[in-house]
């Protein structure tokens, strides 16, 4: 029987075990991690890495080498028979490693507490992963499987790579826009051979909080003896009822008022502005109305720019990203207006925008949205003719912006 040397903390080994289950190949499992550290283990794995598969012919190390070898042992329905589809399968295995496994590490390790939480590194990882999800979601729009018309090793490998994302990182609001990807992932992860090692599909309800790294154990201090409290005399029935009533009143949570609702009343109506903007020509009707009615003491204007334009190599990626951002700003609608523009050409796109907010600073409803971290916000000064012209272009959607052609627009209103 073939022996698989592995580390149970390495989630990638689940890919191998799932593939073996699909192929109905029995493996003897050896989880002795210390063995891999011994000098003689170099004969099995020159780099000392796990997993390693020991066979009658010798050893194979590295997960995709092991998977390919297992598939070559017998005819099976999950490994393509044509060379073209075999190459397609190999490309997806490579993508799983380079586009998912490696990019998610800072995010995964920061959330699970394996490393210290680095907000900037995690934000970059989120952006990289989101770009991959957008591409996968579009690719799976007209496909049930990644290669061919049936489930293959490619599906198992990519779904396995996404498993730690769905289990530890993704939450409903973050992932819900990727409908095609979710459909495909559920199809693969709920296969009996996958459920055995990964469990059934699950998704987090809310954004995960980083777990703290375990602290070094402190020396135990001697506990001081606490003086015994004197027994209290039983209270009268009326006094008890009175105290219970006070406790109930204290426990009732008071509805917290939004600070923006407590600001002095403004003559500028955000709802009226949205109505005028939606139903009138922007340059000839809406903008003149805005300048005539805008209250600079009760509202503020900001410009925004996406921080990672290098990720937006396709116009649909930028459009999907902008749409998702607007959807997740639902709580801001009452207190804000935004016009997002997708601009660019030739695989170079970005997202820029103009915003009107109640109050004189960025509201909490904007800052609480995780996508906001990916956009740089700058306070606008419309007394500057250049900024005023830029503001008008962002709302009009009728030409070039910063020299880049307008592609599409999304509005929060």
TrEMBL record:
<feature type="region of interest" description="Disordered">
    <location>
        <begin position="208"/>
        <end position="263"/>
    </location>
</feature>
<dbReference type="InterPro" id="IPR001662">
    <property type="entry name" value="EF1B_G_C"/>
</dbReference>
<dbReference type="Pfam" id="PF00647">
    <property type="entry name" value="EF1G"/>
</dbReference>
<dbReference type="GO" id="GO:0003746">
    <property type="term" value="F:translation elongation factor activity"/>
</dbReference>
<dbReference type="InterPro" id="IPR036433">
    <property type="entry name" value="EF1B_G_C_sf"/>
</dbReference>
<dbReference type="InterPro" id="IPR010987">
    <property type="entry name" value="Glutathione-S-Trfase_C-like"/>
</dbReference>
<feature type="domain" description="EF-1-gamma C-terminal">
    <location>
        <begin position="256"/>
        <end position="413"/>
    </location>
</feature>
<dbReference type="InterPro" id="IPR004046">
    <property type="entry name" value="GST_C"/>
</dbReference>
<dbReference type="InterPro" id="IPR040079">
    <property type="entry name" value="Glutathione_S-Trfase"/>
</dbReference>
<dbReference type="GO" id="GO:0005634">
    <property type="term" value="C:nucleus"/>
</dbReference>
<feature type="compositionally biased region" description="Low complexity">
    <location>
        <begin position="210"/>
        <end position="220"/>
    </location>
</feature>
<protein>
    <submittedName>
        <fullName>Elongation factor 1-gamma</fullName>
    </submittedName>
</protein>
<dbReference type="InterPro" id="IPR036249">
    <property type="entry name" value="Thioredoxin-like_sf"/>
</dbReference>
<feature type="domain" description="GST C-terminal">
    <location>
        <begin position="82"/>
        <end position="212"/>
    </location>
</feature>
<dbReference type="InterPro" id="IPR036282">
    <property type="entry name" value="Glutathione-S-Trfase_C_sf"/>
</dbReference>
<keyword id="KW-0648">Protein biosynthesis</keyword>
<feature type="compositionally biased region" description="Basic and acidic residues">
    <location>
        <begin position="234"/>
        <end position="252"/>
    </location>
</feature>
<dbReference type="Pfam" id="PF00043">
    <property type="entry name" value="GST_C"/>
</dbReference>
<dbReference type="InterPro" id="IPR050802">
    <property type="entry name" value="EF-GSTs"/>
</dbReference>
<dbReference type="GO" id="GO:0005737">
    <property type="term" value="C:cytoplasm"/>
</dbReference>
<keyword id="KW-0251">Elongation factor</keyword>
